Amino acid sequence: MDHLSLEKPTMPDTLRPLGNFTPSLWGDRFSSFTLDTQLLEKCSKEVEVLKEEVKDMLVLDNDDVGRGKSAGAEKMVLIDALERLGVSYLFQKEIEELLENMFPKFEEYCHVFHDNLFMVSLHFRVFRRHGYDLSSGKWWKEWDLRSHIPYVRDRAVECFFYSTAVCFEPQYSLARLVLTKAMIMISILDDTYDAYGTYEELKCFTNAVQRWDMNAIDQLPKYMKPIYKALLNIHDEFYQEIMAKKGINYSVQYLEEAYKEVIRCYDVETEWLKKGYVQTMEEHLANALVTVTSPLLTTAAFVGMGEIATPEAFQWLQSQPRILMACSTIFRVINDIQSCKTEDERSHVTTGVDCYMKQYAVSRAEAIGELLKIIENAWIDINEEMMRPTMISRDLVIRVLNFTRLYGVVYKYNDGYTQPECGKDSIIALYEDSIPI
Ligand SMILES: [Mg+2]
What we know:
The chain is mainly alpha-helical. It folds into 2 domains: 68-130, no CATH class; 137-415, Farnesyl Diphosphate Synthase. Helices cover 67% and strands 0% of the residues. It is globular. The structure holds magnesium ion. Pathway: Secondary metabolite biosynthesis; terpenoid biosynthesis.
């Protein structure tokens, strides 16, 4: 190749996109390598012994069957390690047999991993890599509501993130699940009332929800049927799941009541909108402290928390306790301030900002200033209510505090639910980025 470097460029003025590539790092390091055949032979023998050991580890024996789920988890970690090391091809037959054995049983034992995101994602990854059809968004995809109602905000990931903020402790995995589904459902209902349904359609829907009976589905327009079905179905699922896992049969009915109440208040908003009525601040808050959904979502969190949420705890929630009202007020007011920016262009329900401006004949900036004072006072209420002793278990009351903290994060810069870009980094940081150790 040397002669090439001696060649003079024929066209010295030609501008070429020269890469100026750096030379090889390795020199003769590998080309002068000689093989120690004796050592190679010794290693090969050791490898054969180790191979047999690994093959044994990849078989589900009687001991493993007795240990059930933990044995399955260990095998999955082993398969993943072999694949990452690039040696799984040596055990292809054993791995395939093992996965074939494990897959049908996965449904039975997967719930024990709900506290352990690593194990859930590991099983998902390995099964999918081997061609097993394991659903990634178990129930959200199954609902398939997006194809029926494309107008809704698709925020399943955000909803799970929010649920983690409210009930982050490992033992409350069921609460996160119930809360996520409840959030998605109420978000669909909110968009249906605010951003799609006509007055007449919404009247039908309001009536059907008050009946809470699958037979009422016939009276609904076609696009509303899957929504209604999903609403009733998730409640049946909650009931069965909470009965099976916690032996509790009283809690889900409180959630049903909470949905009915929110829908009644959505209906009031629909009436106001049709009449073009700008309500007083007091009228607005009385209705909007329900439609803001904090009472409903707190009920959902309690449902998922199991036996700690006694019937008395649910009755306490229904009694409009001061801390819950303060939490709802904060959410309502932050939401009003932020969403009045995005909803201005279209016909929308009147926000607290509009009510305040009209009632007190002040400018938008002045109204927002006054509303911020309401938030400050509500925080004082919350801090006082968190003092011991609390009316119900403090572990439950903390959820109301967590919701309030969450609203501050989601609505800090804009309506972070409608425009989720601001929260994207937090979600990636929590679920994807590992913490350097
Ligand atoms: Mg709404």
